[in-house]
Amino acid sequence: MLLNPVLGKLVGKRVVLASASPRRQEILTNVGLRFEVVPSWFKETLEKSLFAAPYEYAMETAKQKALEVANRMHVKHLRTPDVVIGADTIVTVDEQILEKPVDKQDAYRMLSRLSGKEHSVFTGVAIIHCSSKDNQLETDVTNFYEETKVKFSDLSEELLWEYIHSGEPMDKAGGYGIQALGGMLVEYVHGDFLNVVGFPLNHFCKKLAELYYPPPKHNIQHKKYDSIPSVDTFENLSDGESESSNFTEHKAASKLDNSGMCSSGAIYNYENSSSVRTGFMVPLENQSGVSESAAKLPSKILELMDGFRASKALFVACKLKIFDHLKDKGPLKAVDIANEIGTSVCGTERLLDACAALGLLEKTSQGYRNTDSANTYLTSDGEYSLHGYIIHSNDHVWPLFTNLESAVKEGSRQNHRAFGRKAEDLFKDYYHSWEVKQRFMAAMHSIAHLTARDVATAFDLSQFKSACDLGGCTGALAHELVQIYPNLKVTVFDLPEVIANISYFQPSGQCTAPVTFVSGDFFKDNLPEADLYILSRVLHDWSDEKIHVLLSKISAVCKPGCGILLAEMVLDDEKKNRSTALLQSLNMLVQTEGKERSGSEYRGLLEQHGFTNVKIRLTGNLLDVILCVKT
Ligand SMILES: Cc1cn([C@H]2C[C@H](O)[C@@H](COP(=O)(O)OP(=O)(O)OP(=O)(O)O)O2)c(=O)[nH]c1=O
C-alpha cells in the first residue's frame, strides 16, 4: 500500500467510473483501484460558447457525466455509490474545441488542423462523493482539469488517410490516439502523457490527497498539494476506514479552509479530533506498543463476514410482510406490528431496529415507517417490487448457497443436497409445484421489470420489425419493448408451464400494444420467425455445449441482417472487477450447469454461429446488453 496510499482511501467504498472509455478503465485498473464501470448517458452537447475557457467546458461535461450516473444509480438501486468519477477529454487548436470525429471526413478535418502544430489536450475530471439523506441524493463535487501540450509533425495527405482508414481516430478526441498508431504523428509532449490518453492520474491522486489528507494545522492556509504527499508521510497515516478517514469530515475542514472565514478555534477543534483518532499528526501508541494505524479495523472483511446477517434480516422482514404492513401508514410501534403479524415483541423490535439501521425503515419516537425505497421495492404489490425475488432468494437460493462448499469441491449444482431431490432438468425443479412455480416466476418478473427499460434502450432497435423473446417468461421485457418501439411485434416463447401461468403478471390498466405468447421448448421445438431474437438471462443457465445447440438453431432461422440481443451480467475479460457478476456466477454454480461469462466469451460463442459486429453495453443496472447481427 506504500505506492498508492491515497487510492487506498477508496478501498471498501463503492467507486463507480462513469465512463465507457477503455483507456480510463485501464489506467485506473493498472494502479489497483477497484471500481464498477457505469458509462454515462449524458450527451456531450453543452453550448461551448457559454464557457470562458475550453477547460471549463471539459470540467462541466465531466461533472454532468458523473452526476447523471450518480442520479441514475441512486434512483435505480437501493445502494447509492460512494464515489463517482467522470472525465472528459478535448483537444484545442486555434481556439477551437475538437471532440471525437463523427465520421472519416471529420477526422480528416481535425487531423489536418493539428498537422505541424502544437495543440492542447485538456481532460476535465469530476470526483463526486455521494450520500443519501431522507432518500435524497446528496452530492459533493470536486472538479479539476489538466492540460498537456502535444506537437504533431507535418502530416502528408497520404499518411493522414492511411491513419484515418486504420479506424483508430473514431472514438478519440481530436481524432488520434497517442498511445497507439497516433504516437507516430507526435513530435513532442509537454505534460502528463496519461492526460492525453484520457485520465490525468497524477493530478487525480493529488486531488484525493487534498480531500482525504488535509494538511496539518500549521500549513492549513496552503492547502493545495504541489505533489502527491510523499510515501514517508503516508506510512504514518491510517488506511483503514476509521471514522475520521471519512471524506465528509475532511471536506468540512477544507471548506473551512477555502472560505477563510472560520475562527481558528474551529480549525483547532477539527485538527485536534482528527489527530487523536487517526494518528494523522502523531501516530499514537497503545500499551502494547502497536501504533493506532496498525490496529486499524479490517472493515471490509467485517462487512463481508456479516453480510449474510443483513441479507437474512431483509429476507425475513419481507417474508413477514413487514413492509406491506407499514405501507401508506404513519409510524407504528413494534408491539403493534408484532401483534398484527403474530410474532414476539422482543424479536420483532430487534428486526425492526436492524432494518432501520440498514436504511430500510425509518425509526422515530412514534415508531417505525417505510422509507421511500421500501415502499417502492420491498412491498409485495409495488410496480417495481423486488419482493418476489427476495422470497425466491430466501426459499431457493439461500439453501443452495449453504451448500456452496460442496459445489466448489464438486464443481456442480447442489439441488439434491438443498432440496433432497435431483432434478433432471433445471426448470423441472421450479415447476414441480404451483407454489414454487409462482414464486420463481414472480422473482424473474421482478428483475425483468426492473431492468426492462435499460435493456430495451441500451441500443436503438428500431430497425427490427419483429422480435422473439426466448424464455421471456411473464413478458415484462416484451411489454417494455412494444412501448418503446411501437412498430415492433414481440412474441414471448417459453415453456407451456410458464405460458399457462402468465395472466397474473400482465399489465393492467391502459391497453398496451399486443404481445403474443407462444409455448414451446427452445431446445426441441421450432422457433417463431423474427428479425431479432432476445435471450435475457438465458445463456447463463447453460453449458457452452447447450448454448451452441441453441445458437445454431437461431442461426438457422436468422436471415442476414437479423440479430440477437443478449441481456446478462457481463464479466470483465480478466474476471476480477465486477463482484456482483462474479457472485452471480457462483449462484449459477450452485443451481445450474451454466455460469456468467465475459464479453469476449460471449463474442466467441456468437461469432461461431455467424453473428458478428458484437456490441456490448454496460448499463449500470443489473443486466448488461449485447447486440450482434447475422452476416
Ligand atoms: C487525444 C486522445 C484521446 N483519447 C481518448 C480518451 C477518451 O476516451 C476519448 C475522448 O472522449 P471522451 O468523451 O472524453 O470519453 P469517451 O467518450 O471515450 O468516454 P466517456 O464519455 O464515456 O467517458 O479520447 C485517446 O485514447 N488517446 C488520445 O491520444
Automatic annotation (TrEMBL):
Its cofactor is a divalent metal cation. The keyword Manganese does not apply. One of its GO terms (molecular function) is nucleoside triphosphate diphosphatase activity. Residues 401-611 form the O-methyltransferase C-terminal domain. InterPro entries: COMT-like, COMT_C, COMT_dimerisation, ITPase-like_fam, Maf-like, SAM-dependent_MTases_sf, WH-like_DNA-bd_sf, WH_DNA-bd_sf. Keywords: Hydrolase, Methyltransferase, S-adenosyl-L-methionine, Transferase. CDD domains: Maf (cd00555). GO terms for biological process: methylation. Residues 302-380 form the O-methyltransferase dimerisation domain. Homodimer. PANTHER family: BIFUNCTIONAL DTTP/UTP PYROPHOSPHATASE/METHYLTRANSFERASE PROTEIN-RELATED, BIFUNCTIONAL DTTP_UTP PYROPHOSPHATASE_METHYLTRANSFERASE PROTEIN-RELATED. NCBIfam families: maf. This is N-acetylserotonin O-methyltransferase-like protein isoform A. It comes from Patagioenas fasciata monilis. The lineage of its organism: Eukaryota, Metazoa, Chordata, Craniata, Vertebrata.
